[in-house]
Every structure is written in C-alpha cells, then in structure tokens.
Design a protein that fits this description.
The complex is a heterodimer of chains A (about 500) and B (about 325). In chain A, about 35% of the residues lie in helices and about 25% in strands. Chain A is α/β, with parallel strands linked by helices and about 500 residues long. Chain B has a two-stranded antiparallel ribbon. The chains are: A alpha/beta (about 500), B mainly alpha (about 325).
Chain lengths: ~500, ~325
C-alpha cells in the first residue's frame, strides 16, 4: 500500500485559552480533490495554516508521502511539496502574468547579479500553462486580468516549484462568476489527473458536489466527518447539519403571543440594490421580530445598510409607519426612525477611545443637548447609567474608553446607543458575533423587549440565531429572497433556503 | 478633577505637566535670573498669543485626524491683504475682516476638496499654502508694506492692556475658553471628536462627517489670520515673510500638548503652546541663536509625535514584550 499524499495525526492548536484545533486526524490521498468544509471559526483556516507552515502545531504529526515533516515557515512547506493559494492571492498588479509566476525565482541559479531573461520567463510560463486546458494571455499585467485569470496565475505560481504534490486552494471561487468557475474546475481536474492532490476550501456546498472526490467537515475545532462525496449523495446526508451542529434553543426568549402583534411598522416592497439583492419584500409589525438568515455574500449586510440609507437603492419602496421614506444617508434614516446595530461594531459602531456616555449619546446628539447644542452632561450620565443597568453592562463604568470592554459588552453599548436614539425600527446585523453566551441571552431578551414598542429585524449568518429569536423568517441567497408565503419555516427549511437557495417542504 | 479638565487619563498628567513647567522655569531662572521678570513674562504671554492662536485652529484639524500645512502661507497672504488695505487707507474694520475672509476662504477650499472630493490632505495643503504664499507677493511685488500703519490704529492691538495683561493674551485666553466650551461641552464638539475617532461609526450615527472635516479646515484658516494679525500689530509692517514662523510652534504646541495630556484637546494645545513658548523665550533670553532653539523645540515636537502615535507606542511596547515570559506572547498572537 502506498502512503497517502498527506497524513495528519492528532493535530492540536491552542491560541491562548482557545482550542482552535483539537485532535484532528486527516488523510489526503494522491490525486484526489478533497473539500474542507466548516462555518467561520470552525478551525479549517487554522488547519491549512498549519499544513502550509504559517502556524506551528502544538501537538500531532504531519507526513508527506510517508515522510514526517515539521514546517517552521511557508518556504519549508513548499520545499516539502505543499503549496497554498490564498483566498486573495498576493500578486504584483503591475507585473505581467509570467513575471508573477516566477517572482523571486527568475533564474534557476539566482544570484544577486543574475539577469532576468524575460523571453525565457515567458517561454517557461507558457510551457507550464500548456499542461492545462486553459488559455490565458500571460503577457498581460495582473491589473488587466479578470478574477479567474488571476486565480490561474496564482495557481501556476504555486505550481512553478515543479515538485508540488499538495495544492491548497483557500476559497478560490469566492470572486468568480459561474462561467469562470468552470475554467477553474477544468484546471483542477487536470491537476487531479496529473497526480496532484488538491485541498479545496469552500463555503459553497454545490461546488463540493461538482468537483470534490472526498470531503471533511470541521466544527468547533474538531473534524466531525470525513467521507467520499458519493456517500453524501447515496445516504442523503445533510452537510449543513454537519457544519452547524445542533441548535441552542434555551438562550432564546419566548416567541410573541399572537395577540401581542400590533400595527404595521415597516413595509418593504420590491427593494433592489445593484449587485447586492433584488426584489426583497416584507412586512414588519409591532410586537414581532423578523429574522433574516443569510450567509456571507447573500446580500444580508447590504439589505440592512440599504434600509439604513448607507448604500443606495435602485428600486422598490420602504413605508415606515405609513410614510414612504427613502433615506439617502444614515442621518436621514435616523431622523426617519431607523437604527442599525451594524455587523462590525468596532469599525461601524463605536468610537473606541471615547467613553460609554459619548458612544451611547452619539446617534441622538439632539436629545443629548439642550439650547445652543450644550450637552446635558448630568442627564446623559443618568440616561446612560439606566441603559447600562438594564443591559447589565460589565463593568458598569461609564467613563472608561469602550475599547476596554469585552465584545459582548461593547455590543451592549451599541444597543444602548440605539435605545438612546429612540428609533421605531431596530435592525440588528450579526448581533452576537464575538459575544459570549451570557451576554447573548441578555441581548436576545432585550430584542424581545424592544419588539414590544418597535419593529425589530435580525439579520444573521447563524441560522439558529435567525430562527431562534424571530417570529417570522426568510432567507437570503445570493441576493434573492427565499421565503414561503406564510413566513413560518422550520429551522431546517430556513437552513436549506439560505445554504442551497431552495425552499423545501418537510 | 478628571472631568473638570477633560483629562481622560486622569489628573496625574496635568500635575506632571505643571511639574514640567516648574522645572523648566527653574532651570531657565538659574541660568538667567531675568527669566521670571515681569518684562519677560509679559513677552512670553505676547508670543504665546500668536503661537497659541495658530495652534488652536490646527487642533480642530488634528482632532478630525487630518493635517494642514497651508496655514503659514495662508497667514502670509492674509497679512499682506490686511497690509495692502491699510496702505490704501481703508479702516481696520474693513482690512481685518478682509484678512479673515481670505483665511476662511482658503480653509474652506482645503476643507471642501479634502473632505468632499477626498484629496490627500498633506499634498493639498502644501499646494494651497504655496499658492497663498505666492499670492502674498502680488500686492506690492514682495515689498514690505508699512504705509498708514502708524495712523491706522493696528499698533494699539499690540500695546493695549486689559486688567494689566496685554490685549492679545486676553484675546487668546478668551478664544480658548470659547473653543474649549464648544469642543468639550457641546454636541458640535462631540461630532468633531467622533469624526476623527471613527468616521464610519460617526457617519452611521448620523454625524455629517464631511461637513465637520471641512469646518475644521475653516477654523484653522481663520485662527492663523488672528495669529498673524498680532504679528502685524507687533512689527508695524506687513512682510511677505509674515506667518512663516507659525507652522513649527503650532504643530509643536498641538502634538506636545497631546503627548502631555494624553489626547488632542483645546486644553492640551494650550498647555503645549505654553511650554513651547516658554522654551523658545528662555533660549532667546539666554542668547542662544534661533537656529539652535528651533532645533531643540523641533526635537521636542518629534518626541511628542512619537508618544502620540499609537502604532509607534505599540511597537515600543512590543520591544518591551520580548522581556516578558513566553506564555504572554503566545496569547498575544491569537
């Protein structure tokens, strides 16, 4: 029996208190395309970074072709035949394709004074390219190339070492169109037949079915499954279930009583923004929470920002409490009564070196100040203190820069800012990313409380969250709204809608 | 204490600043007993007025995290405008506002192209500053203007005294008090700070960030005219060199103040300017040529910037972290 191209045994990696990887066993056969699946933070990035020499493993062993290796840096990994193409390949934009391919190894015997022979480089690059069923002009600069051409240049660059046995592709299709994807898949197919093993990381399940021979699923730093793709088809397994695991029902508050649902707060019709989403429509009533499940790239973040006036809309209407609104900036949206709890609170939500009071009052400085714009310092401190108490802000220190708070407490400050802004509609984007479980329950409880007086929309890439908190849900898939007419969907329906873009009836 | 002086890092920094002032004053007094004389102190306060006014507008620009390198040129053009109008026989109430309009207009131009059209701040303000300095030569082909200065009354600005202090120093303190209140006690000041601290979060909070960035440049353009006005009043002539010496002390005042008090603020600039002016005055009293004292003050400015720059601070603390146990470093990596 021949040794596999790559074998990893009992790999563990810790970052401080966090177990990024625990006890991972992995086998990559020669000439197979092996898909690596898992949600963000599942450990697949850490795993490939260990394989490619970026990180060092804490425990375990790695063999390439039966020989144990221990790579200290990416260069050493390449020497052992493991090459990696990053998600966003680092190419020199002003250099031609062939110059990029041989960057740093222009000549076989490269010395300080060896000349770079352009015609020779070009000839060698084209010879390399000829081995694959793709045709691109390598004399163009990378800046002039399309996304797939860049990806091919990056792959050729990785393969230029000649002795490469394992090629790691980190989400290679994330920027490619459907047509471009087939070009890439043709190239991968040729590699497979040439005996090169490809480790393929992706979020897109349909690609796995199309290109991969085997797949492995990561969840919470562990490898939870590894099997041939044929088995998934044969046994009708749910990869999404494997990736996401079981639900955390108990952190969510009770759903709204039917009689608690009141008048219409927000009605959205045919909302469209170029390249992000199209023809989105929903209604939001007081007393209920609308959950929208959408993965990265589904248009969920854009939808929230469009409603908040931060990105322009092309068509459709938004009616807030009976008045048609078309906010062209967050300022106008806030005036109209919409508040966004943004997905990236450190970049979009907080002035980190400022105090809690400063941040809480920022979205409604009119309320925070009296005549001539003079700040009501005592009043603002009292109001902020009340919100801090209501949200169990910890530590309850209002004068400390918010950079000193934990993620969960920073999020509470953003929410308090929304409460101070006194909006009619609250839009939460990824409300619990980086928030610990205790603070999560608190935030969910507050959303429910808010929904009694205002409309609440929660957009999340966590299906359990979108389903668990909301009374009604729909999914976004590549900018399309996937919803059943009654808006009542089971968790699995919502999950499949958001991951596959199809509505299944149980 | 903290809230009274808006010192987030605590009043310790303020006490450290006072201690530094006392030490510097003691050192100069030991070397030259005349340092503490009334005459010298009055000179310090007068010089401080011009530096402090230029630094005040710059403070606004630095708070919105931009740079303005044009205000020396702007001040020069405004000075020649005022001088030209005085020489034409125009009264001060026309000449001075005309100079202020020049400063505001150049500031507004900087602000609009930098905030609304996203021009790079440093290159833009170097260009506009050079153009303004060039335009200053247009009125008199570069010759010094002095006609009508004696009779115009502008010299009174230098000589007038209020409550025993020079008018210029009282004006400085008054303007700083207004600026402090505006910046630290009103919603508009909060908006300036939010714009500088995190423009995206500020925009998402409904703050018109571009407008505030623009206004900061206008403030800088206007206060540098105030500064040069005091210089005009002191020298009694308008020269195409006017204002050229404002740039370095203003930056030194803002950044040294920031380093001393922990963040850029109106009070920090006042503190920084006071220290810088005291140093410059002390050196000149000791007869140290300006090219040495400028070098020393600029070196202090550089030190202040090093302390102000968060990345540099982080870099320095990273060097320090090599001395820490390995486990700490490991956590840092995650």
């Amino acid at each position: 029996m021949t040794a596999p191209a790559l074998r990893a045994r009992a790999i563990s990696k810790r970052f401080g208190p966090v177990n990024a990887l625990s006890d991972v066993d992995f086998v990559l056969e020669t000439g197979e395309v092996h898909a690596l699946l898992g949600v963000n933070g599942a450990g697949k990035s850490t795993f490939i970074k260990i394989l490619s020499g970026v990180y060092r493993k804490d425990e375990g062993s790695i063999e390439v072709g039966g020989e144990a290796i221990d790579c200290r840096d990416p260069k050493e990994a390449i020497r052992h035949g493991i090459a990696t193409v990053q998600q966003h390949p680092e190419l020199v934009a002003d250099f031609t394709g062939y110059e990029n391919i041989f960057l740093g190894r222009e000549s076989a015997r490269s010395g300080l004074f060896s000349r770079i022979e352009r015609t020779d480089l070009s000839r060698r690059a084209n010879a390399l390219l000829k081995r694959f069923p793709v045709d691109i002009d390598l004399s163009k600069t990378v800046a002039e190339m399309s996304a797939v051409e860049r990806e091919i240049v990056a792959i050729l660059q990785a393969l230029a070492g000649d002795h490469i046995r394992v090629l790691i592709l980190d989400e290679p299709t994330s920027t490619l169109t459907e047509v471009e994807k087939t070009v890439l898949f043709r190239l991968i197919d040729t590699l497979r037949h040439g005996g090169i093993s490809v480790l393929y990381i992706t979020h897109r399940l349909e690609e796995v079915m199309e290109i991969a021979d085997r797949l492995s699923v990561f969840r919470g730093g562990r490898m939870v499954a590894s099997m041939p793709v044929a088995d998934v088809k044969a046994k009708n397994l749910s990869l999404a279930e494997l990736m996401l695991g079981e639900a955390l029902e108990h952190v969510f508050p009770a759903r709204a009583e039917t009689d608690a649902i009141g008048e219409m707060v927000l009605a959205v019709r045919g909302l469209t923004a170029a390249g992000a989403f199209s023809n989105i429509g929903f209604e939001l009533r007081r007393g209920e929470i609308l959950g929208i499940f959408g993965l990265v790239g589904s248009g969920a973040d854009e939808l929230a920002k469009a409603l908040f006036g931060a990105i322009p809309i092309e068509g459709g209407s938004v009616v807030l409490k009976g008045h048609t609104i078309a906010p062209r900036s967050p300022r106008e949206a806030l005036k109209a009564g919409i508040f966004l709890v943004p997905g990236d609170r450190r970049v979009e939500g907080l002035a980190l070196t400022e105090t809690s009071i400063f941040n809480i009052t920022l979205a409604n400085l009119k309320r925070a100040s009296g005549a001539a714009g003079i700040l009501k310092r005592a009043g603002n401190r009292t109001a902020s203190g009340e919100f801090a108490a209501r949200l169990a802000l910890s530590p309850p220190n209002l004068s400390m820069p918010v950079s000193g708070f934990s993620g969960g407490n920073q999020q509470k400050i953003v929410v308090a800012k929304g409460l101070f802004a006194e909006a009619d509609v609250y839009i939460f984007v990824e409300p619990t990313v980086g928030v610990d479980i205790g603070a999560r329950a608190k935030l969910y409880g507050l959303m429910r409380e808010l929904s009694r007086t205002a409309g609440v929309i929660v957009l999340s890439s966590d299906c359990d969250e979108a389903h668990g908190i909301a009374d009604r849900t729909f999914a976004l898939y590549k900018g399309r709204q996937i919803a059943s007419s009654d808006g009542l969907q089971t968790r699995n329906q919502l999950l499949m809608a958001g991951i596959m873009g199809e509505l299944h009836r149980d | 204490m903290t809230r009274t002086f808006t010192l987030p890092a605590g009043s310790g920094r303020f006490l450290a600043f006072l201690l530094l002032v006392v030490l510097v004053a003691m050192a100069f007094t030991l070397a030259e007993p005349r340092f503490l004389s009334t005459q010298n102190m009055s000179a310090v306060t007068r010089h401080m007025a011009a530096n402090g006014l230029a630094a005040l507008g710059l403070t606004f620009v630095v708070i919105v995290r931009k740079f303005d390198l044009s205000f020396a040129g702007t001040a020069c053009f405004a000075a020649m405008t005022i001088g030209y109008l005085i020489a034409l026989g125009q009264p001060l109430w026309i000449a001075i506002p005309a100079g202020i309009v020049v400063g505001a207009a150049i500031g507004a131009f900087n602000g609009v192209v930098i905030s609304y059209f996203r021009f790079p701040d440093i290159v833009t303000t170097i260009a506009t500053g050079s153009i303004a300095a060039g335009l200053a030569f247009v009125y008199s082909n570069g010759r010094t203007i002095f006609q009508n200065f004696m009779s115009s009354g502008i010299l009174d600005l230098n000589d007038a005294r209020v409550f025993g202090y020079s008018l210029s120093f009282v004006f400085l303190l008054g303007l700083y008090a207004v600026a402090w209140f505006f910046m630290h006690r009103t919603r508009y000041g909060a908006s300036f700070y939010a714009t500088g601290e995190n423009p995206v979060a500020a925009y998402y909070s409904g703050v018109p960030t571009r407008l505030y960035t623009m206004l900061a440049f206008v403030a800088c353009g206007v206060t540098c005219v105030f500064a040069v006005l005091l210089i005009l009043a002191e020298s009694g002539t308008a020269d195409t060199n006017e204002g050229a010496n404002l740039l370095m002390p203003a930056y030194a005042g803002v950044f040294l103040g920031t380093a001393l008090l922990g963040r850029t603020s109106v009070m920090a600039t006042l503190a920084g300017t006071f220290l810088i002016t005291m140093l410059l005055d002390g050196f000149s009293l000791l007869g140290i040529p300006f090219y040495y004292s400028d070098g020393v003050v600029s070196a202090i400015l550089l030190a202040g910037v090093v302390f102000f720059d968060a990345r540099l601070r982080e870099f320095l603390s990273d060097i320090g972290s090599f001395l820490q146990p390995a486990s700490v470093k490991k956590e840092k990596r995650s």
